[in-house]
Amino acid sequence: MTLLRERVDLMNDGIRGFLKFIVGSAVGVAIGAAAGALAAPKSGEEFQTETNAFLNSVKEEGEAARVAAEAEVAQRFRERVNDPKAFVS
Fold this sequence. Notes:
Blueprint: H1 3-39, H2 44-81
């Protein structure tokens, strides 16, 4: 075989390999999407409702943690500057 023919064959093998990869990826995505849809335990509306409730509870807990942290920082500051009225709102 000539050098040119060998390079063409290598290039064709590379293209075939890439196409196999693309087709395999597409098949994998389709199978994964189908399996996910079949295994989904809840409808979209139920999932959104539960997710929103969870996010709201996390938001409320975060707000409570922020308020507690601010109070702790203010108390430490008052103790450090020896002024019990510092940062009193």
